[in-house]
């Protein structure tokens, strides 16, 4: 009976154990969820079995939490160790509770006698990670762990603290380092007790930050430490033991060659950065007392009182950049920067003192510069406001062939950008004197204003004045200019060069004295247009003279046209007063045109003079008609063969119907085929070189009226009739005129009459016996008349006259030789004084007034 009961109890027990074992997964999962795990955790899957009497094999274990889920596979657990083949962790982001983080002392429930834990592969997937994290965990001693894989670290657990040592060569750290970080080595040691954390790190890092035309290499080495109070919370970070060196390479390639010398010291030497010993961080703020970057002895950059609101990214700091070098002198930029409510503002105060600065072969001596700038913008620069003012001074600016004395520049501006541009700017430039080669401009003042309004109307005004311009050939007094430029502003058109600008302006010159020409009150009105090329028209007015100048400024050409519309030549009179004060223009018209290229210095020209009459002293030229054209090339003027016609020239002997051909080329100015009527005959000169100091000429005389010749010399008391021809060899030598062996001869029968000749009457009184012989000349028919003609450079004309004829009253043949000498300069002067020219000129000038 007893044995039967025992078998029954054993059977019931085995049946009960069998039922419990069959439901072991559900029972263990329910027990752990109920009595072991905290409420936030739950086991959602469990599959296990006894691998041996002292080992348990867990095929699968799933743990869920609000922020993550864990799946563990293939676990062998024994009394001495737990080996996990695979653990998968999936992290889910969850909004933080309103209460936030609360620091509590760390209390890790560590078992004194538990199995060591080893996990072959831990995989972490999280929205915070770009790629899954994979590593292994090995517990080398109780509560001492070694991590390998994406994280190389050591972890030590104590009941109240946790210490982690992380190698910075870990793939995870390298993966999330900055893309320009070339090398990162070192170790990070973290101690955490729940209330505070201590961080110590040894770092060696090399980075290369690439930008177009510049490469910044940075080397960081040293140690940092941080004390983090999690209750406050507050972090104090000591960076003073970090050594940072920044080297700029190839950054000069983007700098214009003229400025390389000034940036050489700034870019060539490495910058050493000194970091603070107490950087302060809270969950909402970061404060940096001071950061200093020095570049040997030339540059120092200081950032002080840096404060940032981490949530809003608001920040503010003050800074200074100070530069000192032999090439640039001392340059300081004090700056205040603030970001608040996503608005950026910066204020700059710039000061420069430079004994001497050389740029593009220009040398600036004793220079000072002061300026203030303010900029404000949103962080994406959709709305920008700028303003500033300043002044610059240079005692002297010199170049190879020019110099500016006492140069002062003052400016102010304010502008805004919000889809459109608005700008107001004013500039004033003053210089005591500007010297270019042998030219000097005194007391130059230039005032310029620029504005872009809300309708994108661009207006530029420029006003300038100068007291005097001294030139080698003269000077210009009181020059005043004013220009206005207007355009519809478009930034895209400006960048492409398609901006269209209308130009209007005027110039006033009080007095001009050049090459003996004096002109007062000159006015120039200017109109023009710019769109990729500059086209201008200038109307120059002086007295009654008006000239139109048109020109264009192209990339390879500078064409121009000067047009003088038909106008009275009297308008030129004021220009001639200084050149030829005795020259007076009485009537006639002039017109002309010149067109060419200033860049190539080539031009062609044409002009026409009609019915022009001029008076020089008592020489009068009436009704001049000519038209000519030519070109200027390689510095030489050429005039093609042209015609000249003059109705009358009154200069003692009256020349009428004068005509000639003239031309100008590299060989000189030539007047040819000169014809004129004189003494009822003609005079002809084949060729005459205007600017030749020495030349031989041959003047041909044809059918001159002897009666008019005798009348010209009527003081001699000899009257002649008939006509003569001849030739006069004329020698010009440095302005002196002489005639040697000239010849005159009669072309028909003439008549000689001697009356009231003082010399003849005196001879008759002295020798009465000659009275009969001399009486034969009183009325002589001249059959042959020949005369030698000679003229000395001082004006003495000698005529050796030989006459053969007959006194019809006495029926006597006569051979008569007569020598006459007279200064024709005196004679012509007397003729001019007694000529009707004076009356004719006065009448002409009266009509022209």
What does this structure look like?
With 849 residues, the protein is mainly beta. The protein contains 11 helices and 48 strands. The chain has a 6-stranded antiparallel beta barrel. The longest helix has 21 residues, at 2-22. The protein is rod-shaped. Residues 1-25 and 833-849 have low confidence and may be disordered.
How does the SSE layout of this entry go?
Elements: H1 2-22, H2 24-36, E1 42-52, E2 55-64, E3 68-78, E4 81-91, E5 116-126, E6 133-141, E7 144-149, E8 153-157, E9 162-167, H3 171-175, E10 181-192, E11 196-211, E12 214-229, E13 234-238, E14 242-249, H4 260-268, E15 271-274, E16 279-281, E17 285-295, E18 299-309, E19 314-325, E20 329-340, E21 343-359, E22 362-378, E23 383-398, E24 402-418, E25 420-436, E26 439-452, E27 457-471, E28 474-488, H5 491-496, E29 501-514, E30 517-531, E31 533-542, E32 545-553, E33 559-568, H6 573-576, E34 583-597, E35 602-616, E36 619-633, E37 636-651, E38 653-665, E39 668-678, E40 681-689, E41 694-705, H7 706-712, E42 718-721, E43 723-733, E44 736-746, E45 750-754, H8 758-766, H9 771-775, E46 780-791, E47 796-807, E48 812-823, H10 824-834, H11 837-848
Parallel strand pairs: 4-5
Antiparallel strand pairs: 1-2, 2-3, 3-4, 5-6, 6-7, 7-8, 8-9, 9-10, 10-11, 11-12, 12-13, 12-14, 13-16, 14-15, 15-17, 16-17, 17-18, 18-19, 19-20, 20-21, 21-22, 22-23, 23-24, 24-25, 25-26, 26-27, 27-28, 28-29, 29-30, 30-31, 31-32, 32-33, 33-34, 34-35, 35-36, 36-37, 37-38, 38-39, 39-40, 40-41, ...
């Amino acid at each position: 009976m007893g044995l039967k009961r025992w078998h029954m109890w054993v059977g019931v027990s085995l049946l009960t154990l069998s039922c419990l074992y069959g439901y072991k997964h559900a029972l263990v999962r329910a027990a752990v969820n109920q009595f072991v795990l905290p409420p936030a955790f739950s086991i959602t899957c469990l599959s296990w079995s006894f691998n041996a009497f002292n080992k348990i094999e867990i095929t699968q274990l799933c743990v869920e939490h609000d922020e993550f889920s864990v799946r563990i596979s293939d676990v062998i657990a024994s009394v001495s160790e737990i080996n996990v083949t695979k653990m998968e962790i999936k992290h889910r982001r969850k909004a933080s509770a309103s209460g936030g983080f609360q620091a509590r002392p760390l209390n890790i429930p560590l078992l004194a006698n538990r199995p060591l834990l080893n996990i072959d592969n831990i995989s972490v997937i999280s929205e915070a990670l770009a790629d899954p994290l994979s590593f292994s965990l090995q517990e080398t001693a109780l509560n001492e762990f070694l991590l390998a894989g994406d994280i190389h670290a050591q972890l030590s657990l104590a009941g109240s603290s946790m210490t982690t040592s992380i190698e910075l060569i870990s793939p995870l750290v390298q993966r999330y380092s900055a893309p320009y970080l070339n090398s990162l080595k070192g170790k990070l040691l973290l101690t955490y007790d729940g209330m505070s954390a201590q961080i110590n790190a040894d770092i060696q890092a090399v980075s290369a930050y690439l930008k177009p035309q510049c490469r910044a290499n940075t080397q960081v080495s040293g140690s940092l430490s941080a004390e983090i109070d999690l209750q406050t919370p507050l972090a104090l970070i000591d960076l003073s033991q970090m050594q940072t060196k920044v080297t700029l390479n190839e950054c000069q390639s983007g700098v214009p060659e003229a400025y390389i010398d000034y940036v050489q010291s700034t870019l060539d030497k490495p910058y050493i950065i000194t970091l603070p010993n107490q950087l302060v961080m809270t969950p909402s703020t970061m404060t940096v007392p001071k950061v200093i970057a020095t570049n040997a002895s030339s540059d120092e950059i200081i950032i002080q009182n840096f404060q940032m609101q981490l949530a809003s990214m608001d920040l503010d700091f003050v800074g200074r950049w100070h530069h000192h070098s032999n090439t640039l002198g001392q340059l300081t930029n004090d700056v205040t920067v603030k970001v608040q409510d996503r608005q950026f503002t910066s204020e700059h105060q710039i000061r420069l003192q430079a004994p001497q600065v050389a740029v593009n072969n220009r040398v600036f001596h004793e220079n000072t510069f002061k300026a203030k700038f303010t900029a404000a913008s949103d962080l994406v620069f959709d709305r920008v406001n700028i303003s500033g003012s300043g002044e610059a001074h240079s005692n002297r600016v010199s170049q190879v062939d020019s110099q500016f004395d006492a140069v002062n520049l003052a400016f102010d501006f304010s502008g805004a950008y919000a889809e459109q541009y608005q700008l107001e700017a004013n500039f004033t430039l003053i210089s005591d004197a500007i010297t270019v080669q042998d030219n000097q401009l005194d007391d130059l003042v230039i005032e310029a204003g620029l504005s872009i309004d809300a309708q994108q109307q661009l207006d530029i005004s420029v006003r300038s004045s100068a007291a005097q311009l001294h030139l080698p050939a003269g000077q210009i007094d009181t020059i005043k200019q004013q220009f206005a430029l207007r355009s519809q502003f478009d930034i895209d058109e400006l960048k492409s060069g398609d901006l269209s600008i209308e130009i209007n302006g005027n110039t006033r010159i009080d007095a001009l004295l050049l090459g003996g020409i004096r002109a007062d009150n000159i006015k120039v009105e200017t109109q023009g247009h710019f769109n990729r090329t500059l086209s201008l028209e200038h109307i120059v007015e002086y007295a009654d003279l008006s000239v139109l100048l048109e020109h264009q400024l192209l990339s390879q050409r500078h064409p121009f046209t000067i047009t003088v519309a038909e106008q009275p030549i009297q308008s030129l009179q004021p220009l001639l007063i200084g050149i030829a004060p005795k020259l007076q223009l009485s009537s006639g018209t002039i017109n002309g045109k010149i067109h060419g290229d200033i860049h190539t210095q080539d031009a062609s020209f044409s002009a026409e003079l009609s019915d022009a009459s001029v008076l020089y002293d008592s020489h009068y030229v009436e009704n001049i008609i000519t038209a000519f054209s030519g070109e200027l090339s390689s510095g030489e003027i050429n005039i093609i063969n042209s015609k000249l016609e003059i109705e009358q020239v009154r200069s003692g002997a009256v020349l009428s119907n004068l005509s000639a051909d003239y031309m100008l080329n590299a060989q000189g100015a030539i007047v040819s085929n000169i014809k004129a009527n004189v003494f009822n005959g003609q005079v002809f000169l084949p060729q005459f070189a205007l600017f030749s100091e020495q030349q031989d000429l041959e003047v041909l005389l044809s059918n001159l009226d002897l009666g008019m010749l005798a009348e010209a010399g009527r003081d001699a008391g000899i009257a002649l009739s008939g006509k003569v021809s001849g030739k006069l060899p004329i020698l010009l030598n440095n302005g002196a005129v002489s005639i040697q062996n000239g010849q005159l001869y009669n072309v028909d029968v003439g008549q000689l009459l001697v009356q009231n000749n003082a010399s003849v009457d005196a001879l008759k009184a002295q020798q009465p016996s000659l009275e009969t012989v001399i009486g034969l000349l009183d009325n002589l028919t001249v059959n042959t008349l020949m005369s030698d003609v000679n003229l000395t450079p001082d004006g003495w004309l000698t005529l050796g006259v030989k006459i053969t004829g007959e006194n019809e009253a006495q029926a006597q043949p006569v051979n008569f030789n007569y020598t006459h000498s007279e200064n024709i300069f005196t004679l012509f002067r007397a003729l001019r004084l007694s000529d009707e020219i004076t009356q004719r000129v006065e009448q002409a000038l009266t009509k022209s007034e």
